[in-house]
Description:
The structure is a homodimer.
Chain A: H1 13-22, E1 27-31, E2 37-41, H2 42-58, E3 66-70, H3 75-86, E4 90-93, H4 100-110, E5 114-117, H5 122-128, E6 137-140, E7 156-157, H6 158-162, E8 179-185, E9 193-198, H7 199-212, E10 222-225, H8 232-235, H9 237-244, E11 247-250, H10 257-266, E12 271-274, H11 276-289, E13 298-301, H12 308-316, E14 320-326, E15 333-336, H13 348-355, E16 359-361, E17 366-370, E18 385-390, H14 402-406, E19 415-423, E20 428-434, E21 439-441, E22 444-446, H15 448-456, E23 461-471, E24 475-484, H16 492-500, E25 511-515, H17 528-539
Parallel strand pairs in A: 1-11, 3-4, 3-5, 4-8, 5-6, 6-7, 10-11, 10-12, 12-13, 13-14, 24-25
Antiparallel strand pairs in A: 1-2, 8-9, 14-15, 15-16, 16-20, 17-18, 18-19, 19-20, 21-22, 23-24
Helix pairs in contact in A: 1-2, 1-9, 2-3, 7-9, 10-11
Amino acid sequence: MKGMMMHRPLKIADLITFAAETYPTGEIVSVRTEGDIHRTTYRETSRRIAQLAHGLKELGIRPGDRVATLAWNGYRHFELYYAISGIGAICHTINPRLSAEQMIYIVNHADDRVLFVDVTFLPIVEKLRPHLPKDLRVVVMTDQTHMPETSLDGVQCYEDILDGKPEEIEWPDFPEEQAAGLCYTSGTTGNPKGTLFSQRSTVLHAYSLCVTIPKTLCEGTRILPFVPLFHVNAWGLPYAAPLSGASLIFPGGALDGKSLFGLMDREKVFSAWGVPTVWFALMKEITENGRLPDGLKDIVVGGSAAPQSLIEAFEEKGINVCHAWGMTEMSPLGTQCNLPEHLEDLSFEERIARKRSQGRRVFGVDMKIVDEKGARLPHDGKTPGHLYVRGNTVTSGYFEDPEASKSVFDDEGWFFTGDIAAIDQDGFLIITDRSKDLIKSGGEWISSLDLENIVMSHPDVANCAVIAVSDPKWDERPLLIVQAGADEKPASQDLLDLLAEKFAKWQLPDNVVFVDALPLTATGKVSKLTLRKQLAEDAE
Amino acid sequence: MKGMMMHRPLKIADLITFAAETYPTGEIVSVRTEGDIHRTTYRETSRRIAQLAHGLKELGIRPGDRVATLAWNGYRHFELYYAISGIGAICHTINPRLSAEQMIYIVNHADDRVLFVDVTFLPIVEKLRPHLPKDLRVVVMTDQTHMPETSLDGVQCYEDILDGKPEEIEWPDFPEEQAAGLCYTSGTTGNPKGTLFSQRSTVLHAYSLCVTIPKTLCEGTRILPFVPLFHVNAWGLPYAAPLSGASLIFPGGALDGKSLFGLMDREKVFSAWGVPTVWFALMKEITENGRLPDGLKDIVVGGSAAPQSLIEAFEEKGINVCHAWGMTEMSPLGTQCNLPEHLEDLSFEERIARKRSQGRRVFGVDMKIVDEKGARLPHDGKTPGHLYVRGNTVTSGYFEDPEASKSVFDDEGWFFTGDIAAIDQDGFLIITDRSKDLIKSGGEWISSLDLENIVMSHPDVANCAVIAVSDPKWDERPLLIVQAGADEKPASQDLLDLLAEKFAKWQLPDNVVFVDALPLTATGKVSKLTLRKQLAEDAE
């Protein structure tokens, strides 16, 4: 028997309409490419989004069309999110740090109709233009005064598209399964793969995010995402903030420690979100200033596992560290590691140890860990297995890539994360490694992640990676690769001694290699793929 | 183009599974009919819910069957909510304060298969038995030790149904539109009408509730609903609490001021939810004790409009009053009146004035106000109109009652609330009256609600109502009916003088009538229907 309740499609546009009506004075503050700080409200933003939507329709954009963005975190990028999906089209955010080859692949694969680009990234587009679809239109995200010289033909100006358009719009209805967003992962093998978010998955993800970290996402808090809007929708914050009434502070391209510290300080940012590498830069700035940015109480760390030293450094200063885990294919949030009340009496050490884990799942994401045969393993906190997930915010396949989609689902339809993890009795997820980054030595597993975590705690280590190298006797052995800090290069033996405090002798790396800079992926993680390649080349 | 994300049905059972895994130590504390206090956790409760679900299946309950409850707020009632809907059946909560006639009507209309009843209400069932469906099975919600004597045949014991059943269950999947709950409103005319909630509407309502009042609904808070589980699912709290990680304190049948104060004090209740009449009783207890219950910081007042004197009394003591508005047909939450940050600098008087309004809408509930012809009216805070609502948590028609369903939707499919309201520029809903309670004098409207609000602020008034009486010259004129407080009867002229400070002369009641007790509806509101009937009878 069916219930007798209305069925309204879950729609992204309803989030901004809601914010405009309910939190009209909620702020969006942006560092602009124009060089100044721009301030607006949800009420004003919803009017500009309506204008932009009218403009997109005039450009010929129809439901299902892909519209690409190549831009920093700012209010215009935010407006595009809502206007594009509002009319039923698909917002395709492009990571400007991708290689030219990858970028050409995805713009053609997505068959983008229009590309919205920040002034900063226009040179990239100029260079790639010959390889992009012929009928792709380019819009520069600025006003007429700031339009740059360009070699491109027919480039349009963002503000011209809005100019004179009505500030009201009747958003169309469509099924909530309608596609709304597209985000490619650079991946470690083959071509980038696209996750195609729906209106439904996006709204449900926003709900889950708000319900999961209610003390961060509530009316009146000020949140700065330095995680980019092109990095899985800045973890869903552009949708969750209007839903909760939180204000948004967008840093634009000013992502160095000094600029971020200054912006956070002036704007009284309560919570900031980003990847560990930027948090390390900020911690350096905090140390130099001898104080925290004014108002900062909470940080969300994700994108890659938060090293213990980072969690400690912030928690010692009274900042709540929310260690989060997810994947592009999961919208992205899977788990978060704020501590429950019954664990609040833990000692500082125990607290940090807990916070190193990925934390507890959000509502709507089911998790299972299984052995090699697919049999479920107990949630005892000790038994690691392959982690699979399921839920409304999880991908059901890659965009126009049946080949890549084939290998990532099990017989029950669960998504294979590629992580090895245990789950404890309190529901905490403990990721021990990526399956492909695990080192299998003499039939036993060694966690590269655990080794890296310890090495990162050494004051003279800026970054590091542990990878497997072939070994005739043990099959694989760990190799430690270190990027030293600015001041001093640590001694190899010191690092091995540090590891020896925690690991068995057979688990220790056989070798330590120093490099000037570790290769990073487009999202700022160490590229073990590149490292392995380099190593193979060196060996030849 | 459809997104490529998994489609999992939104299911109520997933809420308790989530709580058991994520907030395993979250508490459910209940005052039992057995006379003691019972303590359990979400983890333990989910095991008992699994047992109960197995038991229900053994009783022959199938998806779509209605299973009725006639019970106080307690853990067994909570278990029934989840076990019944978990197997795809429909939890039909019956208000024990309904008249015998109404109760017979709804049990037969709903065609309930099983009736779960608290020991307290067994005499009601014994009396009604001959008029209830022949094959209706009756289960008494207690253990063998406490089974009462009864004249009924074949009565079963709740704990026997759970006994020995497996503590695990694989919850079945079904479409998220599956019916899950049934709640009848006594209404003012005709037979009671049933709202049939779905799995989807219930889960989305839980999400909205959590997102709307995140400081109340978050992990570790302790919430006491004295709003009954038979009163629109205690406003959705049994679903929102497990989602947010809040603990639940159930008061059972001990709903007098003294018992509630004691329970709240001992259990360190952070937030309590209920109707104004009980809040008045609690305020009396607070005054007598000279202090608040320990830990109380927040109250939610709904069911009928919160009088200004009530809001003032609690806010003066530093308690946040969240004035909420909704309807059974809306699951029920429509709006809530926590104040936004930009209004936090208001003077106490301005703050109270704001809090008298119904507040801002929750995400997912759209509102419009229209004139007699259905044309939309501006949101200027001054222009009142007929209030219509729309959303996933709003009814699309009454259960097996096409006749009653006909008159409550407009051409666009919006639900007619029966309220007259304005909406201001900050999104605040200001209900001026029920359309049928408005007094139309000389072509002008007089708000009975506004008059009542002022009269309620007089210290010697316990309760009051303003109704329309026919008038040959003015069509209708207001009549004030007052129930005096315990100590002294206020002078009529004092009350009229009080009103004259705020209202025009023509708006003042022509007459004041004192009664010993105002008639109340089954949900504790003043029954103007009964008042009008009595008045008509008196006039004959």
